[in-house]
Specification:
Blueprint (H helix, E strand, L loop, with lengths): L1 E6 L14 H12 L5 E3 L3 E8 L6 E8 L7 H10 L7 E7 L7 E5 L7 H10 L5 E6 L9 H4 L6 H24 L1 H8 L2
Parallel strand pairs: 1-4, 1-5, 5-7
Antiparallel strand pairs: 2-3, 3-4, 6-7
Helix pairs in contact: 1-5, 2-3, 5-6
Amino acid sequence: MVWLVVGLGNPGPEYAATRHNIGQMVVEILAVQNKARWTTHKSRTDVAAYKIGVGSDAASVILAKSKSYMNESGGPIKALATFYKVDPSQIIVIHDELDIPFDVIRVKLAGGDNGHNGLKSLTSSLGTANYYRVRMGIGRPIGRQDPADFVLKQFAVAEKKALEDFLIRGAESVESLITRGLETTQQNFNS
């Protein structure tokens, strides 16, 4: 079985460490942990592949980062899913979530986009919202800061101290989804 694991974010070094790119940070962790090397794919994505499990139970995992901006990421991811013949029900999307406090993970199947332009683009391109989401909580801005500006800022100093552990837990939740299923993953990670 093949799983497509998508880390949502924007391309380029100016966005790499921002809250909006937490999905890409998690797939980077997965690539490092599994010694998977990134290559450029014709679908305008970077991909890295590895196997999880052994023998006939092994699953192929394709990590993906779109080279397009968040609000246009659906097209490249749809092209990648088509290339690898991956059904939307075998896609896991990791993304930032304003409505969940920082350092909290919520894993679910399907749902709305909650105003998230990456999910909106993906759902539109795939023609369905029936894919898994690993929602990485970033919290809401304090005061009057525009959420659109907030997501494009780097994490606060206090958040940076907890960020590595948060990203590792995000990576663990992805592999749990693949190996143990939704219900067990929700029990173990939805805090």
